[in-house]
User: What shape does this take?
Amino acid sequence: MDFKKQKPIYQQIADTLCERIVGGELPAEERMPSVRDVAIQLGVNPNTVMRTFEYLQQAEIIYNKRGVGYFVSPDASDRILALHRKEFIEEELPAFLQKIKLLGLTLDDIAKMQ
Amino acid sequence: MIDIKNFSFAYSKTPVFDNIDLQFEKGSIYGLLGENGVGKTTLLKVISGLLKPTAGSCEVEGRKSFDREPEFLESIFLLPDELPLPDSATPERFFNEMAVFYPNQNLDMFHHLAQELQIDPSRKFKEMSFGQQKKSLLAGALALNTDYLLLDEPTNGLDIPSKADFRRILSERVGTGQTIIISTHQVKDVENLIDPIIIISNNSVLLNASVERITEKLFFEYGGQQRPDALYSEMMPGGFLNVLVNDGMGESQINIEGLFNAVLRNQSTVRTMFV
Assistant: This one.
C-alpha cells in the first residue's frame, strides 16, 4: 500500500539544516549551530534536535569533534544530493508515476513537454 | 525521579485513580494529557504533596510527597492554572518572598524572563490582564529553578506571540536536569515540545511513551483516504488524518490530537502495543 507521508519533525529539521549547507550558509568544515541553539530557535524539544544531529552524523553530512561540537563534512553537499536522489527515487518518483498513469499520461508525453 | 506505585486516589467516595503505576524520569518535559475531569490537576497536587494518596505511594527522589520534608518542598514547584493573587502585590515582591524557600532560585533570571515575555514585574497583579498575570507567574516559577516544575495549563490565556516565547523558554530548560510536567488541553501549543507523552483516562494511565517510541508503534498519515483499519480517522484539508498501527511503514510526524483520540478509542489495543 502507498501511504501519504509526512516526515517526522527531526527529519524536517534535518532538511532545513541541509538547505543551509547546500545554500552555502554553512560551508564545509564550518561549525554547526549547537543542538541547544537550534532547539531554542525553533521552540522544539532539544531531544528532537539531538536526533536530527545523530541522523545527519549517520548520513556523514556532519561529524562530531569530541568535546568541540559538530562540523559540516567536507563532502556534505554531495552526500545531501545523494540522499535527496535516493529519497526522490524511493518516495516521490513512485507517487509521480502513479499520478501520470492516473491522468492518462505516458512518460513519452512528459518527455515531449520538455 | 518521580515514582508513583499502586496509587489510588478518591475524593470521598468518587474514585479518581485506581491502582496506577507511573514514573517520571529526570530531565524531560512531560506532557500530561487527558479529558476534562480525569484527574490531571489531582495528580499534580499529589506529586507536589498537597493531597494524600488514598492508597499506594508517590515518591520524589525517594521521599514521600505527602511527608513534605523541607528537602522535598524546596525541590518542587506547582504553578496552578488559577492562583488567588494578593491584589496589592507585585510579581517582584511576590517572588522575592517566595525565593526564601527555594535555595536554587535565580532572581536575575526572573527579570530576564519578565523582559523576554514583556511584562513589568513591578506592576500590581490587579492591574494586569489574566495573560500578563500568567506570564509573570511563569517567569517566577521558572526562576525558582526547582528540580521539578509542574505547570497546570500554562498556555491558558497567553497571546499568540507569548506561546512561541513559552516554547522557546521551556526548550532552553532541557539539559539543565530540570524535570517539567505540563498538563494541558492546548496540545498545539506544546506539540513539538513535550516528550514523553502521558495520557490518562478512566482512573488509569493509558500511555506513557516517548515520541520516538510512539512513532515506532503508530503511523500518522496525512491527507490520505479514510482507512477502515485505522485506529482513528479524521477529516482534514486534502483528505484524512489516519492513525494506523505502524507495520513497517517507517517514521512519520506525530499528531497529538490524533494520538489522543486513537488512544482513547483503542485502550486495550494500545496498552498491549506499548507494554
About this structure: Chain B has nine helices and 13 strands. Chain B touches chain A at residues 28-29, 164, 167-168, 171-172, 174-175, 192-195, 211-212, 215, 219-224, 239, 249-254 (CB under 8 Å). Chain B has two domains: 2-205, 211-273.
